[in-house]
């Protein structure tokens, strides 16, 4: 009797999703599918829009990382109008960008992923929430997380106009100067941000790496894929987030290729399946070989661990030391262990904080010249940034008036779409045997998904921490033959 | 159900989403410490992007058991419609939260085109990276290796929440401000509820509170309409007085105009004031300030707006006179 287990909805992420797990006659997992059940159609309805409005229109793709879309879009406009922003404008853009990375990554670690980590995978469910995290790390730290995020976002508002859906990006520059009066406060923030990042890494070491149970989970083969890795690098092949070339390395860690924004369409293809509205990017050079990893499959991964895997190091001193520590610990590079993403994310928090400090001390930050109006005739432009969740590409075509005729978007999390499906399926296959379903399984299948940082890192308060779940057992005729129900108090019942 | 005998139950709050971006959910998080205070006074029973409650638990609740459902996003597929109707049944009050829920939002720009064109662009012909020789498109039902997988069907046109269920309150804004959210929660907690249909924002245009309003000359006469990237806007002067189009005159006040403070014109996310169509209101306002000696000259100036639909109805195609749009 074939059974289907549905996890619907997926929770604690941005965007809608569901997971269907299909068991064979022995009750072992045959297939598992992560489906995205929505489509809004940005690539179509952006046609006909004025190009200069695109940074604000495309930021509505995501309200958690609107700054990433705003920035990719602004860079696409630079390319569309063949104009370069003056140094002060570029510095302000990069400042904004690193602030965004700092607060978004920090939030994800403490609030979203924290419950799966800091309190431990075998901890009682009632503590697998932000309150359990605060219990473990202390109220002071909890308050610090909220206040650091708030402070970082106050600078984003100063620079970007509006925090959620910023407004400041223009082709060839930005709309507003950085006020000299804010310089001292920014320097102060930078120092505190660096300290906070270091503290967070220390917390991760103490509570996660030194926790034997959790360590085994990280190093196990439940969450493991040997894929290609993609990330933006600077001229020294160090991780960078705002501007650079995109590098791809093989599962063995060798450079496969490096490309500039304008050539992305030669490198990346998108595969379509009938069971999801989300597309599946892959490397054209290797080809789409299905949902499988290894050097013969064109599937690649993006976002923090992939960026560190694809680079030769970090461009700032303290982050570089942490980068080396992480790879020493795993004893190998690239690191293929999916849960290592959480560690890499924190290395990036430190990098972002150090970069903020460098920019804060740059005298050009408070310069006057923030616009360059020497536009060429618009026709086509591509902008790439590293969003918190991966490589993000905006590609516009326009007529001579700068009205869009075409729009292609490779959105950050999309780079992990195939890998997410594979990770969920792999975890399900390794954990569900003989049709047995229990709470440990349910949490660990979720963890396979959450390690990719579902787009919304949110939830600051009384999370019950128990994942209410219904598992429907259906026979081949689709009739429900039994139900395993877990309510939010953690009580489980099997109902025939 | 209360855990403590004798203590009144906390009001139950549900937060739900549709064709959303997550910004409205993030706006609730941005209440920061105030959210922790609120969380102590209410019981969240649904918030898919942030919490692990399932729809099945909501289905088991009694009608009107939930005090308020805050619903963000426009309704664009069968599953979203189903959940909206479920929440209406189970909730005493429903608030349309954010521009998308109130008016359709940016995603309702898709109403200007046929959904089959959206599919064509996304999956078949429109994107240079799509590699799809078999012309596969997402289907409501697929059979994969003997397994049946389903997806909700996408509507031809996105709908506002009140085009599907009745709505008690409206919080416009993309996203609504912390002040508006705080005011709504305060009203729920104290029981001082405004009347049904209230928009939780002042019923007056943005210009009334904008710091640049004083720089408007008595007579504005736009001899041309400049696009924002073509000029370096003066950060103190009214945009319209600089020949730059600003939606302020046709947009509801209450956001504290962060965009204008960022030296960019208002794009209209707070929606129209009472009983007006935002696009029609703006066109009417322009009628009073566009220059030109003859109708032909005026036409020529107005013609410099390269994207009227996206300018006048950026956040509100679904809820406007354009409604379901004209399909291309």
Describe the structure.
The complex is a heterodimer of chains A (496) and B (328). Chain A has 14 helices and 19 strands. Chain A has helices at residues 42-45, 54-58, 66-80, 87-117, 130-137, 139-160, 183-209, 212-219, 264-267, 304-310, 317-330, 340-360, 417-431, 439-450, and strands at residues 3-7, 18-23, 29-35, 169-170, 173-174, 228-233, 238-239, 245-249, 255-259, 268-271, 280-283, 300-301, 313-314, 380-387, 390-398, 404-410, 469-474, 480-486, 492-495. Chain B is built from 11 helices and 10 strands. Helix content of chain B is 28%, strand content 14%. A 6-stranded parallel sheet of chain B has the order 2-1-3-5-9-10, sandwiched between helices. Chain B has a two-stranded antiparallel sheet with strand order 4-8. By secondary structure, chain B is an alpha/beta fold. At the A-B interface, β3, α1, α6, β10 and β16 of A face α1, α2, α3, α6 and β7 of B.
- C-alpha end-to-end distance of chain B: 52 Å
The coarse overall form of chain B would be globular
User: Percent helix among the residues of chain A?
Assistant: 25-40%
Q: Beta-strand percentage of chain B?
A: 5-15%
- How much β-strand is present in the residues of chain A? 15-25%
The mean pLDDT of chain B is: 90
- For this structure, the quaternary state is heterodimer
Would you tell me the structural class of the helices and strands of chain A?
A: alpha+beta
Uncertain regions of chain B: pLDDT < 50 for 5+ in a row?
none
Instruction: Give the SSE order of chain B as H and E letters.
Output: EHHEHEEHEHHEEEEHEHHHH
How many DSSP H or I helices of chain A?
Answer: 14
* DSSP summary, beta strand count of chain A: 19
